[in-house]
Amino acid sequence: MNTTTRLSHRSWTSGPVDAQLTVFDSHDDREYHLLLSINDDLLDFKSQLSQIYEVLRSFADREKCSTAFVRVYLSDSSTQICEVENLFMEDCGFPFSIIEQPPANGTKVAIWAWMLSKADIHALPSRLYEVCTPHGNQYWATDMCEAYGASKDQASLILQEYVMTLMQENMTLEANCQPYLCS
């Protein structure tokens, strides 16, 4: 059995979208980390978002991989979050999080996506997403937000909410949330 993992990196541009891709390629399994950003800061937010999303979906279709998780970086989440949620909820096939952290180049949106060649991803009734891979299962939560208090308190409250969500699926942190280690 070949357990060697090859690492490759490439960049390309598709219209107003710059893409940076890192691939971990083992004998029969691939893991993709895709960073998408906009190179035209004159485009309005809706155009930037739709262009990035199109490149994300096209890449997944072309590589025949599953989107396991997406992190969306926004310049102004208070005015942009609904647009992102509407677009992503249409797909509803993967978990995502939204961070109010403007892209470094002054545009309005950027995306980091984690994609897998061998994964089954589905939503559970509790709002968790289960990502099933040959290496094990992962459980991702979305829609957890705490805007008040110090960051330590926010993290603690979100962790408590996550624990309660796990309990809805008859799971615990101890039994079901071990570090993800590939063999």
What does this structure look like?
The protein has helices at residues 45-63, 77-91, 151-168, 173-176, and strands at 6-14, 17-25, 30-38, 66-74, 96-100, 109-116, 120-123, 128-133, 136-141. The protein has four helices and nine strands. It is α+β, with helices and mostly antiparallel strands and 183 residues long. A hairpin with a 4-residue loop joins strand 7 (120-123) and strand 8.
Order of helices and strands: EEEHEHEEEEEHH
- Strand content of the residues, in percent? 35-45%
Give the class from helix and strand content and strand pairing.
alpha+beta
Q: Please tell me the overall pLDDT.
A: 87
Number of DSSP helical runs: 4
Roughly what percent helix? 25-40%
The biggest sheet, with number of strands, parallel, antiparallel or mixed sense and barrel status, is:
6 strands, mixed
Instruction: Give start-end ranges of low-pLDDT stretches.
Output: none
First CA to last CA: what distance? 12 Å
Tell me the total number of β-strands: 9
Mass-distribution shape: globular
Neighbour order of strands in the largest sheet: 1-2-3-6-4-5
